[in-house]
């Protein structure tokens, strides 16, 4: 059986991979995907704590509620973010973070 | 979950994540993200969080991946041209990640290791006898009614946040329409 530390290690590694993608990649859509990876790593931590610190013989469902809300907020964030990317692309014809240095339209 | 299944799903998840960062073609990155999220859903199901695992596949591996691929295709992005990577961001990024990983391993090697306790469904059944007999009966029969329990907590304990999330999604929809309509030339 995997222990809590195994889950935390795997989730921390996934977070580090997402962080490296946000810092290293220049394509803004891939940066967005890496943000999703980091949110998912946080979700894995929440579910692992929910399972290992349960009460009354059940997992702690408050943690899974937070996962539910994180997924909802992430979905809204992706929708708005991709709309902003499309608007940026229309204005500048590029989505490379090297070329997008100013927010003025 | 048996240990070999845990490591199988964990490695699928981590390799998918590495492929998202490493592959140059954005479509390949989006498809690697699906592999990563399928591995993550496997880990969720191994943690007895069946509902969250299914939602992970439906929402992320289904809906959000389609959204990403659609936008990539709409903007007609080519593979990133081979610009020489700048050294300073590369070293900075890898340095941050390395420091983070070392901190993580340092903390985990000192923290006490909690082992997996099997779920005690009969004790849980007794706890729900008065508040919701349906859940109690299913627990007593030896099943884990994950969706019933989540619905119970969601609508009894988190009703106001649920309404607020509904408003948030509405505002996001309106925002997307406004952003897409405005012609910036």
TrEMBL record, chain A:
Catalysed reaction, written as an equation: a quinone + NADH + 5 H(+)(in) = a quinol + NAD(+) + 4 H(+)(out)
The GO terms this record gives for MF are: NADH dehydrogenase (quinone) (non-electrogenic) activity
Q: Where in the cell is it found?
A: Cell membrane; Membrane
Broad class of enzyme this protein falls into? translocase
Annotated signal sequence is: none
Query: Which keywords accompany this UniProt record?
Result: Cell membrane, Membrane, NAD, Oxidoreductase, Quinone, Translocase, Transmembrane, Transmembrane helix, Transport, Ubiquinone
- The Enzyme Commission number assigned here is 7.1.1.-
- InterPro entries in the record, alphabetically? NADH_UbQ_OxRdtase_chain4L/K, NUOK/Mnh_C1-like
Domain of life (superkingdom): Bacteria
Chain ranges passing through the membrane: 6-24, 31-53, 65-89
Say where the protein is mainly found: membrane
Entry membrane topology = Multi-pass membrane protein
Instruction: List the Pfam families hit by this protein, alphabetically.
Output: Oxidored_q2
Give the similarity note: Belongs to the complex I subunit 4L family.
Q: Fetch the PANTHER family from UniProt.
A: NADH DEHYDROGENASE SUBUNIT 4L-RELATED (PTHR11434:SF21), NADH-UBIQUINONE OXIDOREDUCTASE SUBUNIT ND4L (PTHR11434)
* Subunit and partners: NDH-1 is composed of 14 different subunits. Subunits NuoA, H, J, K, L, M, N constitute the membrane sector of the complex.
Which function does this protein serve? NDH-1 shuttles electrons from NADH, via FMN and iron-sulfur (Fe-S) centers, to quinones in the respiratory chain. The immediate electron acceptor for the enzyme in this species is believed to be ubiquinone. Couples the redox reaction to proton translocation (for every two electrons transferred, four hydrogen ions are translocated across the cytoplasmic membrane), and thus conserves the redox energy in a proton gradient.
User: What protein name does the entry list?
Assistant: NADH-quinone oxidoreductase subunit K
Species this chain originates from: Luteolibacter soli
According to the entry, what is the taxonomic lineage of the organism? Bacteria, Pseudomonadati, Verrucomicrobiota, Verrucomicrobiia, Verrucomicrobiales
Gene from which this protein is expressed: nuoK
TrEMBL record, chain B:
Pfam families, A to Z = Oxidored_q3 (PF00499)
Enzyme class label: translocase
Q: Which domain of life is it from?
A: Bacteria
Keywords of the record: Cell membrane, Membrane, NAD, Oxidoreductase, Quinone, Transmembrane, Transmembrane helix
- Look up the EC number in the record and give it: 7.1.1.-
InterPro entries annotated for this entry?
A: NADH_UbQ/plastoQ_OxRdtase_su6, Nuo/plastoQ_OxRdtase_6_NuoJ
**Looking at the keywords, is Transmembrane helix present?**
yes
**Location relative to the cell:** Cell membrane
Q: Which residues cross the membrane?
A: 6-23, 30-51, 57-75, 87-108, 160-179
Reactions that this protein is recorded to catalyse: a quinone + NADH + 5 H(+)(in) = a quinol + NAD(+) + 4 H(+)(out)
Membrane topology for this entry? Multi-pass membrane protein
Q: Which GO terms describe its molecular function?
A: NADH dehydrogenase (quinone) (non-electrogenic) activity
Q: Which family does the similarity line name?
A: Belongs to the complex I subunit 6 family.
Role this protein plays: NDH-1 shuttles electrons from NADH, via FMN and iron-sulfur (Fe-S) centers, to quinones in the respiratory chain. Couples the redox reaction to proton translocation (for every two electrons transferred, four hydrogen ions are translocated across the cytoplasmic membrane), and thus conserves the redox energy in a proton gradient.
What is this protein's name?
NADH-quinone oxidoreductase subunit J
Q: Which organism is it from?
A: Luteolibacter soli
């Amino acid at each position: 059986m995997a222990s809590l530390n195994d889950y935390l290690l795997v989730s921390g590694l996934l977070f580090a991979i997402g962080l490296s993608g946000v810092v290293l990649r220049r394509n803004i859509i891939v940066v967005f995907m890496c943000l999703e990876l980091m949110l998912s790593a946080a979700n894995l931590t929440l579910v692992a704590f929910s399972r290992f610190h349960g009460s009354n013989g059940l997992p702690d469902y408050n943690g899974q509620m937070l996962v539910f809300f994180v997924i909802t907020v992430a979905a809204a964030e992706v929708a708005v973010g991709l709309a902003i990317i499309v608007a940026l692309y229309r204005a500048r014809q590029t989505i490379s973070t090297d070329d997008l240095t100013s927010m003025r339209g | 979950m048996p240990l070999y299944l845990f490591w199988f799903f964990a490695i699928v998840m981590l390799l998918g994540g590495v492929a998202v960062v490493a592959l140059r073609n954005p479509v390949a990155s989006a498809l690697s993200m699906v592999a990563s999220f399928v591995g993550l859903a496997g880990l969720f199901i191994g943690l007895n969080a069946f509902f969250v695992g299914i939602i992970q596949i439906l929402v992320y591996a289904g809906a959000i991946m389609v959204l990403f691929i659609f936008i990539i295709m709409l903007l007609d992005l080519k593979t990133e041209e081979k610009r020489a990577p700048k050294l300073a961001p590369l070293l900075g990024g890898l340095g941050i990640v390395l420091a983070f990983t070392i901190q993580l391993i340092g903390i985990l090697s000192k923290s006490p290791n909690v082992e997996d306790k099997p779920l005690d469904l009969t004790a849980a059944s007794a706890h729900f006898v008065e508040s919701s007999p349906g859940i109690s009966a299913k627990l007593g029969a030896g099943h884990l009614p994950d969706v019933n329990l989540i619905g119970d907590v969601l609508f009894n304990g988190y009703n106001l946040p649920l309404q607020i999330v509904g408003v948030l999604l509405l505002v996001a929809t309106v925002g997307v329409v406004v952003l897409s309509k405005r012609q910036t030339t």
